[in-house]
């Protein structure tokens, strides 16, 4: 089973994008997820998690969520690799969001679709 649930704040505004051939919409953004333990000085560190959302859900995220907003995401972990322009192999790990809930903002919106 590959299931992840995260709660955190957006690091920057999401931007709606198209795949290279232009047939699919998506957005990529990073959320800062606070760790559950405190450091010796009382502060908490955060992990910065890359997230990708596809299709209509990407449009919803871009319309309603901005930098600093709190969001809960459930989805799956995806890993992959590609070659950069210099021929170096690069590895990526990201969360592909399947459902989400906006926690802060004027409107509460969910990304769960009823099929």
UniProtKB/TrEMBL annotation:
<dbReference type="GO" id="GO:0009295">
    <property type="term" value="C:nucleoid"/>
</dbReference>
<dbReference type="Pfam" id="PF00436">
    <property type="entry name" value="SSB"/>
</dbReference>
<dbReference type="GO" id="GO:0003697">
    <property type="term" value="F:single-stranded DNA binding"/>
</dbReference>
<dbReference type="InterPro" id="IPR011344">
    <property type="entry name" value="ssDNA-bd"/>
</dbReference>
<dbReference type="InterPro" id="IPR012340">
    <property type="entry name" value="NA-bd_OB-fold"/>
</dbReference>
<protein>
    <recommendedName>
        <fullName>Single-stranded DNA-binding protein</fullName>
    </recommendedName>
</protein>
<comment type="subunit">
    <text>Homotetramer.</text>
</comment>
<dbReference type="InterPro" id="IPR000424">
    <property type="entry name" value="Primosome_PriB/ssb"/>
</dbReference>
<dbReference type="GO" id="GO:0006260">
    <property type="term" value="P:DNA replication"/>
</dbReference>
<keyword id="KW-0238">DNA-binding</keyword>
